[in-house]
Amino acid sequence: MGSSHYDNGQRDVYVITRTEKPQVGRTIFYTGDLIELVAQLKSVAEKNIYCDGGAEVINALLKCGLIDDFVISIIPVMLGNGTRLFKDGRPEQALEIIASKAFDSGLVQLHYRCT
Predict the structure, then answer these.
(1) Is residue 100 a contact partner of residue 107, using CB atoms and an 8 Å limit?
(2) Hey, how many other C-beta atoms are within 10 angstroms of the C-beta on 45?
(3) DSSP result, 66-110
(4) Apex 26 CA angle, 21 and 20, nearest 5
(5) Which among 7, 11, 40, 89 counts the fewest CB atoms within 10 Å?
(6) Res 36 pLDDT > 60
(7) For residue 69, what are the CA distances in angstroms to 26, 74, 104?
(8) β-sheet bridge partners, residue 108
(9) Which residue has the higher pLDDT, 36 or 90?
């Protein structure tokens, strides 16, 4: 998909990476401290911060209590191997179901709020 998949020109998109790259449009390749970035964005943003990412980023945010909601999509394809949704070592997190939606494609989305 590439960075342009999320960059519709209407918002800044931060790609968390270990490799420094120049900004492309409103896509910013961020190599700094993730917690500092979230604090900075929360201090100026009046909207939600959406994170679509891997277990390492999610675990770091969970450990600092920086995730309010989860939207977890279940795609009806059985994989033999793949990347885990969550890494070991994350804190236990109680969740409250907010909504669920099934699509004709078989995809199911579950929306949870962290309690």
Answers:
(1) no
(2) 12
(3) ---EEEEEE-S---SS---SS-TTPPP--EEEEEEEE-TTS-EEE
(4) 10
(5) 89
(6) yes
(7) 25, 16, 24
(8) 74, 102
(9) 36
Angle between helices 55-63 and 34-44 (to 10 degrees): 70
Nearest to 20 by CA among 32, 12, 10, 37: 32
Q: 3 pLDDT band (50/70/90 cuts)?
A: very low
* Lookup: tokens for 64: 């600092």
pLDDT at 104 (0 to 100)? 97
The kind and range of the H/E element at 25 are: none
Q: What does the mean pLDDT of the chain come to? A: 87
Contact 24, 9 (CB under 8 A): no
